[in-house]
Amino acid sequence: MAKALLLVDMSKDFIYLDGSLNCGPAGMSIVGYCRELVRSFLDAGHIVIDARDLHHPDDYEIRSGLFPPHNIEGTHGQELIDELAQLLQGRPDLWVRVFKKHYNACFRTPLCEILRQHGVRQVHVVGVCTDICVRYTVSGLYDWKVSEYPELEIVVHERGVASFNEVGHADSLRHFRQAFGVNVC
C-alpha cells in the first residue's frame, strides 16, 4: 500500500522556541518522534510531504493582527526545521513541498493531487498546531475522502502533533476520532 507522511508546519517559526509563533515546549517535544517517523518513511521508500505556511506581510492573517508575522517568504523562520531538513535533503526524490496560505493544507494547493498521483492510500499526519492547521488539514483530507477519494485512510500520530493550547489539542484528537473516523495512534 502506498503511504505518505504529511508534515504540517514543521517550520522554525512554529517549532523552535525563538520562532515568531512557536508552540513552546510542546512543539519541541515532538521533534524526535517526527524525525524517526521521517526516517522510517524514507527508508521504506514512501514520500514525505512538507506542507508549510508561506506568507507575505500583506496576507490577511498578518495584516489583520490575527497572528504576528510568521513564515514570511525568504526568512529563516519559514524554513523546515534542521532536524528534518537534514534527512530530507538526502532524499529529494521523496521530499515533496507544498506551500500554503490557509490553515488547511488542501485548500488551493496541489496536496490532494500529489496524493492521488502517488497512489497514496494511507496518509500519516504530524505537525502543529493540533487545533489549527493540523485540524483544518485533517478536515480537508476528510472532505476529499468523502467526496472523491474514499480509499484514503487518515492516520494522526498523537506523539507527533502539538499545540500551545492543551485544551484545543485534546479536543482536536477527540474530534479526529469522533467526527472524521481518523485512526489516532
Question: What layout of secondary structure does this protein have?
Answer:
Layout: E1 2-8, H1 12-15, H2 24-29, H3 31-43, E2 47-53, H4 60-63, H5 82-89, E3 95-100, H6 111-117, E4 120-128, H7 130-147, E5 153-162, H8 166-180, E6 183-184
Parallel strand pairs: 1-2, 1-4, 2-3, 4-5, 5-6
Helix pairs in contact: 3-5, 7-8
Radius of gyration: 15 Å
CATH architecture classification name: 3-Layer(aba) Sandwich
Task: List low-confidence stretches.
Answer: none
Mean pLDDT: 97
In one word, what is the shape?
globular
Task: Supply the number of structural domains.
Answer: 1
Structural class: alpha/beta
Fill in the CATH topology.
Rossmann fold
**Tally of individual helices:** 8
The biggest beta sheet reads: 6 strands, parallel
Extended strand count: 6
SSE string, helices as H and strands as E? EHHHEHHEHEHEHE
Query: CATH class, please?
Result: Alpha Beta
